Amino acid sequence: MEPAGNPQIPADLVEVGHVGGAYGIRGWVRIKPYSAGAEALLAVKEWWLDSSGSREVKVLQARWQGADVVACLAGVSDRDAAEALRGAVVRISRRHFPAPDEGEYYWVDLIGLAVFNRQGDCLGTVKGLMDNGAHPVLQIETGMPEDKKRELLIPFVERHVGKIDIENRKMTVDWELDY
Quaternary arrangement and interactors, per the entry (predicted)? Predict the structure, then answer.
């Protein structure tokens, strides 16, 4: 596969999925998106693949296939070439993401936020999110000394999550450190 060029790697790349393998015999790839709302994958015509170094690839076509996105990439013309990309991380520039609606957030924007409870106690920092099937769950790393650090799991639902301030990098939750 030939890269779409050798442009400078954008600083705002966000990991949005990975190549799950080939789709069909004509070189299409199956992408396992990390979010159910992966519309940016369909809209953006340049992806960055990370397997043995980052390289930009041109997306000729992309569409939903069940819970996955299948795509035809320039320079990938057969099943073997597509299968060789299995496991490659797919990244796109953050500038291509559509603006979220009021009260909606991209998970990538929540990572790194300081988390405080309603009493003002710092519980830690958002290290990640996961989906348990019913709702997303915040993974909070407590700010305790290294030997006492632990992970808090807080449901990302209105009942527990209060104000989110992306600009000031903090959020308020209805949660106690000893839960």
Answer: Binds ribosomal protein uS19.
Report the pLDDT value the prediction gives residue 144, as an integer from 0 to 100.
66
E strand or H helix that includes residue 13: strand 13-23
Q: Is the dihedral of CA 114, 117, 119, 122 positive or negative?
A: negative
In the block, which residue shows the tokens 């099937």? 133
In a domain, 2, yes or no: no
0.90 surpassed by pTM: no
Q: Is 8 within a domain?
A: no
Contact of 47 with 130, CB cutoff 8 Å = no
CA atoms within 13 A on the CB side of 76: 31
Residues of the chain predicted below pLDDT 70? 1-7, 36-37, 52, 144-147
Quick one: DSSP state of residue 45? S
DSSP for 130-177, written as a single string: EE-SSSEEEEEE--S-GGG--EEEEE-STTTEEEEETTTTEEEES--T
Is residue 134, in this structure, part of any structural domain at all? yes
Which residues partner with 72 through β-bridges?
A: 61
Angstrom distance (rounded) from CA 53 to CA 26: 25
Region for residue 73 given its phi and psi (left: phi exceeds 0; alpha: psi -120 to 50; beta: otherwise): beta
